[in-house]
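Sequence design from tokenized structure. All designs in this work follow the same two-part layout: the structure record, then the generated sequence. An example of the structure record is given first.
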């Protein structure tokens, strides 16, 4: 969550006329910042994660698991304890993790007290940091409350019995939802206003429809009996029966269904703006793969869905587009048709690296033309201008009356207003005023995992992959429209195993067209040598391939990144080596993308090393001691196992649990008792009290219990 300004938020009719003011000053603020920081260089490779929790309140008598709405009290207690820690050990305060509010009043977010470095030793400390945060959160809750890292709460918005503690009715002015009381929204004025203004701007409630999972006893068509079709409390109540609620779908009608989902985010600092732009681009195609691999949310509003992940739910939950912008009516009052929600996948690559071929940016990219012209007139290159002018097609949703007039030389508030309400799979974050923090890139698609072991594993994997990308100059570019196809496929039930995904065949940066296995092996060898030299010459080949350790004078990733791309690399870009874009990519299973493609004379993808292979190549180029290598290997093994199916995803675990519960009637319904038993079980699995061998590696429970001992 971005910054929480204080003040009086304007209702939509008063905010709307100020949209151009905010956009225009937002760009002035960006330009003013840009002139100061465009040449900023040498920032360290720091990174940090964000983990979101749901506070679940158990009622043992009624055998119910409810959502606790005590966020404000809990955060206050956590802040007090943080302050106490600060006064006791002022030098150590950076080490103390921090907790933040989120949209849902049943949610908490935690981050490390200060960002981590990227040395392999430091990566081994991430899990302990996450464990510590969970322990702190847990110890500040009431005895019947537990923080669970669950992406979607299966009974959020059910109407047959309460799902909140305390019990509440859905009749709030902000959401006007048939299912969600406004009290589940963080009461800070920003959030109810955001909710109401999205609805007002759109001209209707948001309409989220997730396909129901048709089990053996689920009626066809499925017309949801739990929708109060005939309610007449708000004019919007009629929408459900007028087509907003689709048959065979789980219908949801409020922002809270989306923003009430939890996720795992990772932010990286880059050494320069150009490095940040490269990382941003290279991670774009990785996004849908990691969404499918971390899938953890197969249940909504009391039903099993036929999807495994949250992304489309949130996308629809904040979709403020008017009928005209949606293309359902001819343009009259709205400025343009917008193909996507504010919460969606990335629409354009932004790196000026010549490897970013213009053909890859093949998505429609509506921009604010005036803003684009202004940015370009001020010396911003077309790729970055397009990116910003695309974000700035959106209206600001929450404007505080006290914040309308700002000094554009010092404030970034108007810029952040638009930037932070464009929720995409990646976010490009300019340095905030103040000077301590550099250019950053945020990786946002992953679903939060049940255990800190898994959260650490996926975070560390992405960090190491980023290091490998920079160190070897890897190239993952495919047309961005294909990334969107992958995004759609990633939503299918069991998308890890049932779908194929577009991915680049030859991921090495220097890339002559080769169609033989010998050529790919040579390319792989050439790549390994680049780990050491950092400046591959076109002739670099087999002879250097085993010399990584010897020729690598640097032992840490921090040093490795210092070199700028060599002219040799750049000259490739314009060379005739570049063939048709369509020949650069192919379809892969996630197992193949992660674990590599088996050698075969018949398969032209043969030799594809897999992202794990690339990460190991990178680790091999460092002088990692045996113990560290082993620890990091445990994380990489988890990622590999989830990809090859030897371990199931969280979503599959949840679906299997529901379907094997004695009370389940194979009608897609998740009753209160099923939910209660499942939450109990999830908590026990997390604590290592019961084993889940199909889901977590065999050592997990013992290891978790051992840390619990040492933490006492
Ligand atoms: P947001 O909610 O806007 O994404 P947060 O402040 O909640 O932002 O989280 C940002 C993440 O970035 C945290 O994990 C934090 O540790 C990390 N972080 C903070 N400073 C830096 C930095 N200089 N470089 C990289 N990561 C950083
Ligand atoms: Mg958050
Ligand atoms: Mg945050
Ligand atoms: Mg945020
Ligand atoms: Mg958030
Ligand atoms: Mg974030």
């Amino acid at each position: 969550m971005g910054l929480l300004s204080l003040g009086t938020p304007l209702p939509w009719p008063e905010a709307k006329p100020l949209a151009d003011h905010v956009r225009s000053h937002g760009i002035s603020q960006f330009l003013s910042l840009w002139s100061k920081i465009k040449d900023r260089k040498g920032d360290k490779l720091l990174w940090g994660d964000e983990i979101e929790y749901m506070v679940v309140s158990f009622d043992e008598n009624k055998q119910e698991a409810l959502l606790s709405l005590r966020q404000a009290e809990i955060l206050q207690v956590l802040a007090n304890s943080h302050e106490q820690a600060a006064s006791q050990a002022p030098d150590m305060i950076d080490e103390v993790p921090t907790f933040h509010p989120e949209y849902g009043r049943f949610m908490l977010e935690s981050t490390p007290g200060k960002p981590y470095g990227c040395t392999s030793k430091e990566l081994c400390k991430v899990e302990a940091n996450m464990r510590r945060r969970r322990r702190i959160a847990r110890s500040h809750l009431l005895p019947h409350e537990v923080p669970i890292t669950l992406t979607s709460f299966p009974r959020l918005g059910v109407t047959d019995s309460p799902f909140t503690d305390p019990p509440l009715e859905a009749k709030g002015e902000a959401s006007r939802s048939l299912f969600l009381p406004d009290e589940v929204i963080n009461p800070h004025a920003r959030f109810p206003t955001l909710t109401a203004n999205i609805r007002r701007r759109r001209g209707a409630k948001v309409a989220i429809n997730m396909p129901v999972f048709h089990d053996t006893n689920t009626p066809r068509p499925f017309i949801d009996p739990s929708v109060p079709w005939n309610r007449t409390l708000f004019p919007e109540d009629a929408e459900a029966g007028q087509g907003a609620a689709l048959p065979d779908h789980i219908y949801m009608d409020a922002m809270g269904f989306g923003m009430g989902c939890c996720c795992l985010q990772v932010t990286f600092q880059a050494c320069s703006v150009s490095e940040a732009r490269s990382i941003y681009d290279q991670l774009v195609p990785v996004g849908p793969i990691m969404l499918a691999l971390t899938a953890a949310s197969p249940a909504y509003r009391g039903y099993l869905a036929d999807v495994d992940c949250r992304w489309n739910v949130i996308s629809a939950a904040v979709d403020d587009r008017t009928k005209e912008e949606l293309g359902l009516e001819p343009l009259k009052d709205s400025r343009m048709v917008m193909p996507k929600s504010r919460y969606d996948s990335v629409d354009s690559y932004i790196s000026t690296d010549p490897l970013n071929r213009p053909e890859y940016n093949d998505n429609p990219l509506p921009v604010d033309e005036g803003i684009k012209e202004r940015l370009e007139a001020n010396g911003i290159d077309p790729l970055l201008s397009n990116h910003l002018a695309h974000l700035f097609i959106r209206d600001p949703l929450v404007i505080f009356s006290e914040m309308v007039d700002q000094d554009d030389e010092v404030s970034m508030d108007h810029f952040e207003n638009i930037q932070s309400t464009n929720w995409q799979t990646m976010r490009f974050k300019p340095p905030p005023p103040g000077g301590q923090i550099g250019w950053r890139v945020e990786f946002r698609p992953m679903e939060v995992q049940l255990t800190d072991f898994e959260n650490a594993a996926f975070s560390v994997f992405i960090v190491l992959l980023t290091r490998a990308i920079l160190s070897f100059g890897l190239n993952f570019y495919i047309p961005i429209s294909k990334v969107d196809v992958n995004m759609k496929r990633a939503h299918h039930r069991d998308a890890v195993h049932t779908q194929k995904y577009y991915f680049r065949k030859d991921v090495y940066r220097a890339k002559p067209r080769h169609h033989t296995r010998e050529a790919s092996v040579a390319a792989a060898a050439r790549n390994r040598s680049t780990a050491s030299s950092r400046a591959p010459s076109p002739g670099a080949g087999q002879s250097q391939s085993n010399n990584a350790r010897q020729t690598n004078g640097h032992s840490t990733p921090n040093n490795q990144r210092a070199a700028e791309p060599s002219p040799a690399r750049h000259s490739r870009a314009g060379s005739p080596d570049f063939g048709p874009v369509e020949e650069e990519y192919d379809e892969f299973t996630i197992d193949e993308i992660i674990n590599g493609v088996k050698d075969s004379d018949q398969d032209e993808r043969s030799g594809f090393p897999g992202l794990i292979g690339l990460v190991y190549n990178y680790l091999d180029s460092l002088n990692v001691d045996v113990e560290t290598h082993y620890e990091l290997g445990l994380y990489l093994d988890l990622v590999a196992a989830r990809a090859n199916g030897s371990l199931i995803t969280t979503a599959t675990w949840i679906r299997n649990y529901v379907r094997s519960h004695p009370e389940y009637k194979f009608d897609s319904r998740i009753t209160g008792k099923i939910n209660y038993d499942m939450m109990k079980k999830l908590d026990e699995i997390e604590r290592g009290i019961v084993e889940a061998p199909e889901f977590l590696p065999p050592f997990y429970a013992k290891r978790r219990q051992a840390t619990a001992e040492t933490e006492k």
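The mean pLDDT is 90. We note this feature because it recurs in several other targets discussed in the main text.
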